[in-house]
Amino acid sequence: MRIAGAQVNLRVGDLDGNEKLIADCMTWAEGEAADVLLLPELAVTGYPPEDLVLRMAFVEDNLDVIRRLAARSARCTTVVGFVDLGSGGIGRGGADAARRNIYNAAAILQGGEWRATYHKILLPNYGVFDEDRYFLVGQKPDFLWDIGGVPAGISICEDIWVPDGPPLTQARAGARILLNINGSPYHYGKAHQREEMLAERAKASGVPVVYLNLVGGQDELVFDGCSVVIDRSGAVVHRSPQFAEDRFVLDLDDELDGRGTLAPLLDAEEEVYRALQLGLTDYVRRNGFDRVVIGLSGGIDSALTAAIATDALGSEGVWGVAMPTKFSSDHSVSDAVELAKRLGIQFDVVPIQSVFDDYLDALAPLFGDEPFGVAEENLQARIRGAVLMAISNRFGPMVVATGNKSEMAVGYSTIYGDMVGGFSVLKDVFKTTVYDLARWRNRESEVIPSNSIDKPPSAELRPNQKDSDSLPPYEELDPILRLYIEDDRGVEDIIAAGHDPETVRRITRLVDRNEYKRRQAAPGVKITTKAFGRDRRLPITNGYR
Which pLDDT score is estimated for 93? Predict the structure, then answer.
């Protein structure tokens, strides 16, 4: 058996573009004399299509794509994801009826015909997944399809994650190979986790597993690809690269053994960096922008954001703007200048002290003799946000916010200020990880000035300000945040883990109080198991502490 896999980057809602790419893959697989071609889960619609599938016209249009793809199919069997409509259509029940009568499905196309359909059985309804909101449960866990005389079990994503799921049922029914198509979102370390799981499934079933995954960015989600073929002993015999499109062909002998290429798994920092880079690339390009503008303070967050943006969009696609006040240190502008020079990006300085002074003069009758405080600090951030949005409105680049997860967690960010932007690259990246990524990027080529990495972090909104004035060191803060946000640990559990009781209570109160801010933040790339927004959904008005 010759297996072809197309690990491709598809766009949600772009039925025409997706059809063209799928058709091209089918032509390629025929040229490679493949017996079967695997394409990702919901390849026709893109993943996840969300409430688009509640529109009858969208569902019907995606069915038309499958019909046209079927008509062009030839000797090679194509397995491709789409949204299937149950018998009887949607009728007059509208969106709710659509939810009750559509399936996450795989079409089997061959010889000019739409031969069969598999409906996904296990519908994930946790984390970023809402499939139970949209789809009916499939009813044929023992589904098999003959491919060149080899009985193959076909399944979709979550079906294979459960030990006694449909693939094991298919193996017991006589499948000699298991084919699984996916739209599996990335989080840090998931590639290792997936391979361990797939090895267990292959050994339990006693047959090889072919796992084909989607690649690309979709809003907050990134799909890392990393498609694999696992032999019956649990060994990886093929691995596609992470965060890159890949078309591969693997020949299996009469015993369904074979050997493909093994792309290396990336190390921790590179894996996260490439996920952020791909997520930004696809978000910016697919939303009609060709440039971004970033406020450069000389600090580590804006420096890393600019480096990622430059790697994602090229130096011509990034515009850096420094907006100093009298509180900005001399090295703030000089570090920003040096960063822009090393990256080769456009750079401008827009001093905002006079604008800030005008605001203070206008507010003097109201503020009176009140001491300088948060209002004045946030005012500077909001002026900077207004400058960046003015540049965006005049010249067209998308504003990219520079805040990190540690700041977002405890509310050390300003609504309509440094939170302004169409996208937030570091939204799910803790501050300590920001430093790790900056150091990793500099090992490739030193683009981030060492001073931006080494100097104490500061918002520079008042004289001699440092983050440590009001927050514990990030090396102490981030472990508390990880336990509280990602592990859902209670206060007493976190204290028992060895953290200072008063610090834990203060930090968790800050996290709870600032949900309203996070709801107003720009979307950003998910890299952890519990990102703000899609993963972690807490009520804003909430009396539980």
Answer: 45
- Identify the residue whose tokens are 């029940």: 93
Q: Is 195 a catalytic residue?
A: no
41 included as an active-site residue: yes
Q: Are residues 298 and 209 in the same domain?
A: no
Cα 35 from Cα 499, distance rounded (Å)? 58
Which of 19, 41, 338, 460 is catalytic? The answer is 41
Cβ(340)–Cβ(316) under 8 Å? no
Nearest-CA neighbor of 252 among 203, 179, 194, 183? 179
Active site residue 60: no
Q: Is the pLDDT of residue 251 over 60?
A: yes
Q: Which of 19, 25, 76, 157 is catalytic?
A: 157
pLDDT tens digits for 444-482? 899 999 988 888 776 656 666 676 667 899 999 999 999
Instruction: Give the number of domains in the chain.
Output: 2
Kindly state the percentage of the chain with pLDDT values over 90.
77
Is 296 in the same domain as 212? no
Alpha helices in 315-430 (DSSP H): 330-343, 353-367, 374-395, 405-410
Same domain, 327 and 182: no
Which of these is catalytic: 19, 120, 427, 431? Answer: 120
Q: Which of the listed residues 219, 254, 289 is the one where a domain comes to its end?
A: 254
Q: What is the pLDDT of residue 92?
A: 38
